Amino acid sequence: MEQYIAELEDLLKQVLGGLSAQAATTTLEQRYYSQPQCIPALADVALRHPDAAVRNLAAVELRKQVKEGAHGSNDDKWEKLDFTTRNQIKQRLLEVIVVEPENATRHAQSRVISEIASKELDANQWPELLGFLNNCCQSANASHREIGVYVLFTLFDSVGEILDEHISNLLQLFGRTLADPESAEVRVITLRALGRVADYLDPDNKADIKVYRTLIPGMLAVIQQCLDSGDEDRAIKGIEVFDNLLVLETPVVSTQLPALIEFFTRTGANKDLGGNVRQMAISFLMWATVCHKNKIQKLNLIAPLIGAMFPIAAEDEEEDEDSPVKVALQVISSMATSFPPNDVFPVTMKYVVDYLNSADPRARKAAVLAVAVLVDGCADHMRTRINDLLVLVSRALQDPELIVRKAGCLCLGSLAEELETEIGEHHASLIPLIFNLMSEPHYEIQKSSTNALDALLLGLGDNVNQYLGVLMNKLVALLDNGDARVRGSVVACIGSAANAAGDDFKPFFVELMPRMQHLMAMAASKDDLDLRGIATDAISSVAEAVGKDVFRPYLPEVMKLSFEGLHLESNRLREATYIFFGVLARVFEEEFGTYLTAVVPQLIHSCELSETNFEGPVVGGEEEEADEGKNFMSLHNAMAAEKESAADALGQIFAATKAAFLPYVEQTVNILYGFLEHNHEEVRKSAVGSLFLYFSTFYKMSSPAPFLPGLPLKVPVHDNVVNIAKMVSEGVTKMLDEEVDRLVVAQTFNEYKDILKETGPCILVDIAQFDRLATIVLKVVEQQHLCQIDELSDIEDDMDDGVPHSKISPRNPNSSASTTDEEDDDVAELDALLIEAAVDLVAAMAGALGADFASYFERFQPLIAKYFKKSRSSSDRNMVIGAFADVTVGLGEGVTKFTGELMPMFVKGLADEDEEVKANAAFAVGVLIANSRADLTSYYVQVLQLLRPLIETPSELNANDNACGAIARMILRSPDAIPLDRVLPAIVQQLPLKRDFEENEPIYQCLFALLRANNAYLLENLPQLLNIFAQALSPPENQLKPATRAQMLEFLNTLKVHHTDQFQNMLTSLRSDYANIIVSNLR
Question: Is the link from the previous residue into 992 a cis peptide, with omega within 30 of 0?
Fold first, then answer.
């Protein structure tokens, strides 16, 4: 044994002397750590070696060997030791630790004690430990107190559940050590230990929660002491404790929230402190707005918090990714997404205006960036104020200071991403400003302006063509001659230009491709790999723009380069390559099938990568463990992004290649199914999208007959379709029921909506599955779904005894509340987005189930109707009217029982102040009159009065078309209740429809019916009708459905055969091209 210890001791010295970690691992594992005797040997070195560094390293390794193997398993080395040896080690540890002079070594030895305790305490084999620690904590010797507190701190990592029964005593003990009069170390460790204690507080234990809350001022005092003494590292560890307290189910901080906000606001604003501690303090504020938003709202802390962030945002900015400036802006962004826009936007804009007029360019920069971060949560709110915002942006883009112009570019890019149509409409004033900035010599402004242009291109539509020549010249010049740091932005912008231009990008293709292929082959450095990934993504956009025939000669080479890139060490490059595969498959369709044997195994490999097999360092202490955790999270996020793009690609490739992909379906569909439980929300979203694509592809491949609404299925489908539908619907519905991320739920609802519209009810297989989905959607509409229940914000505190009335108090639209209707109605845009997705899905479910949806609509209708109140936003009212109109169509005659509730609402919508609400209400009134068997003629006069201005006033929306369609449906239902001589001229005047071709159906059905009835007005105006019919028969081809087109041609042919001379005279009066259209269609 002595020889064994001597050799081990010598090896540990070599490790400290510089032996590589990998070599140390191999030697130690093979020669020493394979047998239980390594534990007493390491203990001997850790507890008696004269060199503190060797003792420390031995203790670190000892902890690992004690930990190895599950308790009681064959791999458990500690359990294989005899009782005498184990007791000797435990006794020696307690004897030596109190005399160990080195702090780091004491900490390492403490962790050994903790690890042994995890295997001994539960079996009551170390009863003296807790008594020893209690004595240490109350010792007159400060170092003993530090040992006692630190070991207790580490014990919570290993045996917290055993200490659970001692929580009350520990709170009393830590209350004393938190105010230790002599040792800052004792106070700081106590603070950190209290962070561990909070994890084990029983939410129902009133007394313990009350005691813990009384300790919070003392915990803040310890952080302040660290700051005052310049010990910012310890202060950061203290702030981390409060970060954890924020997210606990047990409401320990709620009553102390004002004091916490004040403390961390003051700390974050203190310029005398280091950047790390300041950003940690500000980050606490950000998470407070997420985790305790209701409390912050009730305490009126929104405006003070926003005001406190602006001076920080106006400081000199550091390059650090998490500088105080950046985190302060993140707080504003978080508030924009967490709180109703009316609570955040006006307050923020007040500061924006003030700071924008400052002589300090840093203040102007802060103002512009604040607008940029608002848009994520206030996009709809900002949409109606776009003109004022663009005045601000244009001013920033022309500011004399570079930092303000750069901020202006970022702001424009953010607005363009969220409000692409609105920003695109102002291209004439914005593009010249961006072009000017791209010509500036400084690389930072070149990069920022190119990024802004990249985002702006998304909303240009056909307007991009007028800029394309100048745009491409500038981009190619920057690519060839610009700073290397700009090239990534330039290449991404080229991809966006191709996306926007489509077929018009062809003239630039041949000149551009050699450059792009060169970039796609770069691999000398990490920057090269990043640029290669951007180029790979951009080339896929170019391929989609120019089409497969033009791109085909380049396909073999770019595929070869993409395969080579997969074997380089870059998660981001693989992510870009998988996106590339998906797009190229979409472009080349079945032709891409030749690459499946090379592509699909790579996708499967990435999907199956382990995210837990991370090799950390062989040696190290507490700091190294923290670094290891950060590295693991970074790796985990990179791998999750790779899996997300691989999952997306699988769905797109199957949809494109169809039969060629069938050999891979079984394996890949199981992978995607497993991803529904992945811990990264983006991977779950990708899995849902691809699973629905798999189902849709099987459905299309089966060449199904058109579906009929209702369950059981009225139109049989192929067994393969049934099987995939069962798997997908069950998996996705189960995920939805347990999902905690609102965006995942919203996107999944949208996917369900689209697939129901495409394939009808067969995705849900049977009524039981339909019930499960309906129940989930109902929870969301009621705002009681798991993703909407904020367990932290919705906890109601009993301010008398400091204990919650209930753990969770979800807001229920049916329940009474102390808040006003207006307060209830004002929600964050993210919450509104989720509700809208749910309501849209309700409409799609009605279309899929038909009249049988009536029993479900009885529950949905009153809940959704609440969103139509005048106090709700116009977008909410529009959502309700649009959804109820679609439900009406889906229910058919089944809507009759709901007519009494729906008709007054629709009529009210016709008088709404919002144009879009009125337009949708016109459609809703029409389809309700057409489908309901109730007699609604008593509403006709009022409805016609409200529809008249919609017909007579030109609109960029569908108001004119919908109003005409509504009147046509009213005529079809009750022609005698309509003054035809007055309404028909108004309808004919609007024809042919220019926007909503769906409304052509009732309008032409109405006209044909009246013509068959020899309506005098229509017969007198046949030449005008022929002119309208000719335009309706002209491109675009989707103006008329086949049946309506056939009826129109039948009518024209009747005129031609039975009224030949009159028909020829009318043809002669038409424009020659219109006459030719009619003649060619009648041949």
Answer: yes
pLDDT band at 319; cut points 50, 70, 90: low
Rounded to whole angstroms, the Cα distance separating 188 from 191 reads: 5
Q: Which pTM value belongs to this model?
A: 0.84
As beta bridge partners, residue 797 has 804
Greater confidence (1071 vs 620) lies with: 1071
> What is the widest separation between alpha-carbon atoms in the chain?
122
φ, ψ of residue 102 to 5 degrees: the values are -95, 125
Contact partners, residue 865, CB within 8 Å, separation at least 6? 880, 901, 905
Nearest CA among 370, 257, 275 for reference residue 320: 275
Predicted pLDDT of residue 885: 97
Q: In the predicted model, is pLDDT for residue 320 greater than 90? A: no
* DSSP structural state of residue 679: S
Q: Which stretch, 358-362, 809-813, 865-869, 911-915, has highest mean pLDDT?
A: 358-362
Measured between alpha carbons, how far is 92 from 84 in angstroms, rounded to an integer?
Answer: 12
* C-alpha distances out from residue 578 to 168, 561, 636, Å: 55, 13, 18
Q: Contact at 8 Å (CB) between 119 and 71?
A: yes
| Helix H or strand E segment including 402 | helix 402-418
> How far apart are alpha carbons 143 and 185 in whole angstroms?
9
Give the pLDDT mean for 654-667.
97
Give pLDDT tens digits for 339-370.
999 999 999 999 999 999 999 999 999 999 99
Q: DSSP label at 339?
A: S
Could you give the 3-state DSSP secondary structure of residue 803?
strand
Unique residue bearing structure tokens 């008593």: 938
Weakest-pLDDT range from 797-801, 850-854, 1043-1047: 797-801
Q: Collapse the DSSP code of 804 into the 3-class scheme (helix H, G, I; strand E, B; otherwise coil) and give the result.
A: strand
Task: Write the CA distances from 137 to 144, 198, 222, integer angstroms.
Answer: 7, 19, 18
Which uninterrupted H or E stretch holds 224? helix 206-228
Is the per-residue pLDDT at 39 higher than 80? Answer: yes
- What's the angle, vertex CA 770, arms to CA 725 and CA 684, rounded to 5? 55
What backbone torsions phi and psi does residue 806 show, to the nearest 5 degrees?
-150, 155
**C-alpha distances in Å from residue 280, one per residue of 459, 603, 804, 943:** 38, 38, 29, 60
Q: Please state, in angstroms and rounded to a whole number, the distance separating the CA atoms of residues 570 and 565.
A: 8
What CA–CA distance (Å, rounded) separates 536 from 521? 10
3-class DSSP state of 797: strand
Question: End-to-end CA distance of the chain, in Å?
Answer: 106
The Cα 844–Cα 836 span in angstroms is 12
Q: What is the pLDDT of residue 825?
A: 58
CA angle 596–600–602, rounded 5-degree value: 130
Q: What's the gap between Cα 799 and its chain centre?
A: 36
Q: How many angstroms separate the CA atoms of 508 and 781, rounded?
A: 50
Q: Is the dihedral of CA 596, 601, 604, 605 positive or negative?
A: negative
Sign of the Cα torsion 251, 254, 255, 257 reads positive
Sign of CA dihedral 183, 185, 191, 193: negative
pLDDT at 798: 42
Cβ-Cβ contacts under 8 Å for 500 (sequence gap 6 or more): 457, 458, 460, 461, 464
Per-residue model confidence as pLDDT tens digits over 530-544: 999 999 999 999 999
Contact 1023, 1069 (CB under 8 A): yes
Tell the residue number behind the tokens 């058919």, with chain if given.
Answer: 892
Q: Which residues contact 40 (CB under 8 A, 6 or more apart)?
A: 1, 81, 85, 88, 89
531 Cβ contact partners less than 8 Å away, ≥ 6 residues apart: 487, 488, 491, 519, 522
Q: Is residue 969 within 8 Å of 934, Cβ to Cβ?
A: no
Cα 704 to chain centroid, rounded: 35
**In the chain, what are the helix, strand and coil shares in percent, each to the nearest 5?**
80, 0, 20
